Amino acid sequence: MGKENNYVECFMYYMYNRWDLNESKKLFGESLGDHIYTKWTEKIEYSIDRTMSWYGDLDKKCRDKLLERAKEIYGED
Questions:
Q1: 11: number of Cβ within 10 Å
Q2: Distance from the CA of 21 to the CA of which of 8, 31, 41, 51 falls in 20 to 30 A?
Q3: pTM of the shown model
Q4: Percent of the chain scoring above 70 in pLDDT
Q5: Are 54 and 47 contacting, i.e. CB atoms less than 8 angstroms apart?
Q6: DSSP secondary-structure letter at 29?
Q7: What is the per-residue pLDDT for 1?
Q8: How far is CA 22 from the centre of its chain?
Q9: Rounded to an integer, what distance in angstroms lies between the CA atom of residue 41 and that of residue 45?
Q10: How far apart, in whole angstroms, are the C-alpha atoms of residue 17 and residue 15?
Q11: Residue 52 or residue 23, greater confidence
Q12: 56: how many CB neighbours lie within 10 A of its CB?
């Protein structure tokens, strides 16, 4: 499996096992963390593929931060 696939797997494990309001605030700060988590909960209600849809709506800086955190927790490196 290539590194890109590992990153996707890390991200999905991270979102399933660790993602919550506290994690969002830890990663993005109090205000932005609350905003990003609220956007995620709204996606849960309206989208079958909620995590990837929500992820796609974030800007690159926020996506990169999430991916780095996922790799930090679940990555092999």
A1: 21
A2: 8
A3: 0.62
A4: 84
A5: yes
A6: -
A7: 43
A8: 13
A9: 7
A10: 6
A11: 23
A12: 10
Cα 19 from Cα 26, distance rounded (Å) = 11
Classify residue 41 by burial, with Cβ atoms within 10 Å: 0-12, 13-18, 19+. Answer: exposed
Tokens encoding 74:
């679940």
CA distance 31 to 65: 16
Q: Which tokens sit at 41?
A: 């909960």
* Residue pair 62/7 in contact by the 8 Å Cβ criterion: no
Residue with tokens 């796609």: 56
Tell me, rounded to whole angstroms, the distance of Cα 64 from its chain centroid.
9
One-letter identity of residue 54: W
Render pLDDT for 10-46 as a digit per residue (tens, 0 to 9).
888 888 889 999 999 999 999 999 999 998 888 776 5
